[in-house]
TrEMBL record:
Entry keyword Cytoplasm: yes
Family, as annotated: Belongs to the NusA family.
HAMAP family xref list: NusA_B (MF_00945_B)
Domain S1 motif: 135-199
Listed name of the protein: Transcription termination/antitermination protein NusA
PANTHER family for this protein: TRANSCRIPTION TERMINATION FACTOR NUSA, TRANSCRIPTION TERMINATION_ANTITERMINATION PROTEIN NUSA
Cellular localization per UniProt: Cytoplasm
Keyword vocabulary terms for this entry: Cytoplasm, RNA-binding, Transcription, Transcription antitermination, Transcription regulation, Transcription termination
One GO term (biological process): transcription antitermination
Quaternary structure and partners: Monomer. Binds directly to the core enzyme of the DNA-dependent RNA polymerase and to nascent RNA.
Pfam family, one: KH_NusA_2nd
GO CC entries: cytosol
Amino acid sequence: MSSDLLDALVALEKQKGISRDILVEAIEAALVTAYKRNFNQAQNVRVDLNLEKGTMKVYSRKDVVEEVEDERLEISLEEAQQINPVYELEDIVEQEVTPRDFGRIAAQTAKQVVTQRVREAERGIIYDEFVDREEDIVNGIVERFDAKNLFIGLGKVEAVLPQTEQIPTESYEPHDRVKVYITKVEKTSRGPQVFVSRTHPGLLRRLFEMEVPEIYDGTVEIKSIAREAGDRSKVSVYTANEEIDPVGACVGARGARVQSISNELSGEKIDIVEWSEDPVVFVANALSPSKVLNVQVDEEERSTTVVVPDYQLSLAIGKRGQNARLAAKLTGWKIDIKSETDARELGIYPVDGEMFEESEENGLADLLEEISPVDEVEEPIDLYADEEHNE
């Protein structure tokens, strides 16, 4: 038995990465329990399993005391010294008590322990692997689904994609390949449980890191993300390198980079805007693709009042208020949007101070005092004024 067991433990150590010494300790502890259960013994015992020599012995352990109260656990100093004169009080005397037919019980116990420990070790290895990948993106394969959850195969483990974390516009079929974001890894009695998401903003962040080298190496930084999964997202980016256009780096040549990310998210539209520490500029940028005439900031309330051209009002607000809602999430500022006509009637526009001027940095409308009123100017073609931007 010992020779076969030794070979099995050596193989497990190589294949599963489980230490042979740990397995031997577990087997010895299980054999102690098996000895007490099968031979009705309540005494303290120790099992010595020597795989190299092919021996297995059981030793009783008794404390050396002056007066014995429990013969199963204690031995007098006089009796102990008869065994070996070197024993003193508080020493432990060990004597072999190995039963003749203990080998069969030992073999069964060792098999059970090894199987259990291998399973536990594999679960531990899987848990350690995936707990380190929380907030990371992984590739998986759709395996099965029930009424609410989708189960994604990640190789050694099956992850759960809850219904609330699925993109509403997506449909899934078995064997579909899909990228998911690991939100949480838990230990359970059945092994590690991995939870993933397709709607988490972190998924969008990781996709940009994979697609845009400037973000991956830290040259361009994603400052904030506002996302309504499956429909539209806004991403603010920043770089301290004046020679790099952060928005252009994320968009890519002819929009190739952002289009690749959009395709991965089933056509989700993505607006990329430049971050600014100035809330006036940041809020104006965040309302892209609409033009902004003026932004007034209330620092105490952390709110802004934004003035846009009359013909851009529906575009600024967006379908069901989506554009304004995402801009508010992206910036962290409340945004109240007014048309130019309403703002003039309320006396909040024009205001004294610097107006936005069209530039490469902010891309805002050129506002000159001598410009004709909006209703006298031929209305420009609005490429964004499609039905999904209307209220």
